[in-house]
Specification:
two-stranded antiparallel sheet, alpha+beta, Cytoplasmic protein, three-stranded antiparallel sheet, binds zinc ion, 13% strand
């Protein structure tokens, strides 16, 4: 599988993987930060707030730009400016796959 495609899967439902990472990066703003800088997560509902499995499936939000496009090195891909730039190009500038633009708030 294309490594950019493979890595992209790790940008959602990635709480457990990010907990196991030392460094994280955002494919949208191409910033690199520590996992403990992430304060926003999506995917929990009132019903499964106390369910450890549901917590592990949460999706990280970038502490810099708020995108759900965070990768941790725990997924096995290199988190560096070059790799994030390639991810950004492929996914956000749509050079590889068409994807609806994220909603701006
Ligand atoms: Zn970002």
């Amino acid at each position: 599988m294309n490594e950019l495609l493979a890595a992209y899967r790790y940008t959602s439902n990635n709480h457990a993987q990010i907990e196991a990472s030392k460094v994280c990066g955002c494919c949208n703003c191409v910033e690199i930060f520590r996992p403990d800088e992430i304060v926003g997560w999506t995917g929990l509902t009132v019903q499964d707030m106390d369910d450890p499995k549901a917590i592990g499936r949460q999706t990280a939000m970038c502490p810099r730009c708020g995108s759900e496009a965070v990768l941790g090195d725990g997924c096995g891909f290199p988190i560096n400016a070059g790799f994030l730039a390639r991810m950004n190009e492929a996914w956000f500038q749509r050079t590889m796959i068409h994807r609806p633009a994220p909603k701006k708030s």
